[in-house]
Amino acid sequence: MKRYVLIRILSLIPLWLGISVLAFALSNLAPGDPATVIAHRLSDAPPSDEQIEAIRREYHLDEPMPLRYALWLASAARGDLGISYRTKRPVFKELAAHFPATLQIACAALIIALVIALPLGVLAAVRRGSWFDHAARAGTLLGASLPSYWLGYLLILIFSLALGWLPVAGREGMSSAALPALTLGLGTAATLARLTRSSLLEVLGEDFIRTARAKGLGEWAIVWRHALKSALIPVLTATGIAFGHLLGGAVIVEEIFAWPGVGHLLMNSIYDRDYPMIQGFVLFMGAVFTMLSLITDLSYLWIDPRIPLAKNKRVGR
Amino acid sequence: MSGGGREVFEDAPGAHRDSLDAAGRKVTSTAWLAAGRQEESILHQLVRDRAAVVGLVIIMLLAALALAAPLIAPHDPAAQHLHERLAAPNLTFPLGTDNLGRCLLSRLLYGARVSLAAATAASLLVLLIGVSVGAIAGYAGGWVDMAIMRVVDLLLAFPLLILALAITGFIGVGMSSVLVGVVSVWWASYARIVRGLVLSLRERPFVEAARAMGASPARIIIRHLLPNVIPSIIVLATLELGSLLLVISGLNFLGLGVQPPTPEWGAMLNDGRPFLLSAPQLMIYPGLAISLAVLGFNLLGDGLRDHLDPRLK
Question: Which of A39, A128, A193, B164 fits a 20 to 30 Å CA distance from B186?
C-alpha cells in the first residue's frame, strides 16, 4: 500500500515536467518576434531597437531553446511565472488571488450536482421502467445536452430578470454564487445521476442482493442497507473527476456571470494576448488537476474494500 | 506509473459508461468496443430503439436544413436591414431580425452549415490522428508506444477545454485556430482506445499469419488491424460529435472563432448577449439550435452505446 502510494505520488514529477514542457512549447505558438512583443507590451512609448535588444538579452531570448526552457523552469519552480503584460503584476499572484472564487463556485456546483443526482439516480434504479425512470432519463439526457453558455442566460432570464430573486452578475454576497453554481452543476448532475442509476442497477443484480431478497427483506431495506454502499463507489470516484471538469467548465460560466475567478482571468488574458498569464494558467491548472486525480485515485483505494491493498493498510498500521 | 490509478478507476463497475462532459477528459473504457463487432444487427436493433431513431431524425433534419440553406433561407445572412433592427417576427423575417437588422432565420440556417461542418471536420481530423497514432503505438510497442502514451497521458491530465482554450489563445482568433486547438487535444483519448484495441489484436493468429507471410508492419496495420478497429471507432466518433459541437460552439461563444459577419450558432449567442433583456430571442434561437443538435447526437449515441455494451443488456 505504502509503496503504491509513494509510486503514485512520485509519478507526479514526470507528469509535471511534461506539463511544463507543454506550457513552454505553447508560448512558442504565439505569432511575432517575442522580444519585440514584450518590449511593446511593457512600455507605453514605442520601444527603440536598443530597448528591444536589451529585452532580448534580459529574457534570454537569444539563447538556444533548451537553455531557455531550463531557465524558465528554474524560475517557475520558485513560483516566478513572469509578469502579466496586462496587469503588470506577477502571474502567480494573480492566479492565486483569483483561484478561491473559482473554487467556491466549483464546490457549490458539486454539492448541487450530488444533491440532485443521488436521489434521482437511486429512485430511477429502484423504480426501473416506471414513469419516473423514463422522466429521469429524459431529464438527464436533456441536462447533458444544454450548453452551459445557454443555460446560464436562461437562468438569468428566469431568476434575475423575471423573478428578480438573484443578482445577474458579479460576486457580492452568497446569493451571487447561486446562478453560476447552478449553471455549472446541472450538467454534472445529469451525468452523475445516470451513473448512480446504472451502478445501482448493476449491484442490484448481484448474488448477495438475491440472498438479501431471499431473506425476505423489503426493497428499500435492500437498497439502503446492502446495495447502496457498493453502488456508490464508482459514483464517488467519478465525483473526483467531475470536480476537475467543473474547474475547467468554470471558464465559460465565469465569463457569463462576470465571476472574478481564474477562468475570467484566463479569458481576459486571451483577449489581451497576455501570453505569460495564459502560460502560467496552463502550468497552474495542470498542477491542480494532476493533484486532484492523485487524490481521487488514492481515495478510491481507501474506499473500495475489494482492492486487497486497502486491507493491508488497515492491518499494516 | 502515472496511468495506474486510472486503470483502477476504469475497472470500477459501471464507471465506464458515461463520458463525463463536453469539457473534458473521457472516462469511457474500451471494454465494450471490443465486443461491438456486429454492425448489421446493431442497425436493426437501433431502428427498434425509439429514442435513437428520434436522435437520428433530428440530426438528418438539421443536416438537410444546413445543406439546403442557400435554397430556403429568405435572406442573405449578412445583409443588414438597418431600418428593421430587432424586428419582431413578421412575414418578411419569420423569426425577426438582430441588432443589425439581419434575418435571424437565415443566420440560423447558414449557422447550421458552419457549426455542423466544423464539428464534422473536427471529428474526422480527430479520428484520422487518433487512429493513426493509436495504431502505431499499439503495433510498434516498446519505446515508441511508451513515448506516445506519455504524450497522451499528458494531454488527458487536463480537462480538454482548458488546453483547447490555451492553444487557441496563443494562436489567435479564427475558426481554424479553434479547430487546431480542439483537434490537437481531442485525439488523445481516441489514440488510447485504438491502441488498446490494436494491442488486443496484434497477437491473434490472423496477424501472426500475415507476419509469417512477410507482410510489412504498415501493411499489417492498414490491411489487417484497422479494418477490425474502424467500425467500433466510427461509433465512438458519433458519440463524440455532440461534445465536439458543444466545445466548438463554446469557443465561438467566447469570441475566439468565426469573425463577423459569419453566422455560427455559438457566435450568434455571443452577439446576442447585450440584448438579453430587450430581445431575448437573439439568444434563445441559437441556443435551442445547439441544444437540439447535441440532444440528437446524444440520443443516437445513447442508443448505439446501449446496443454495443453487452454489460447493459
Answer: A193
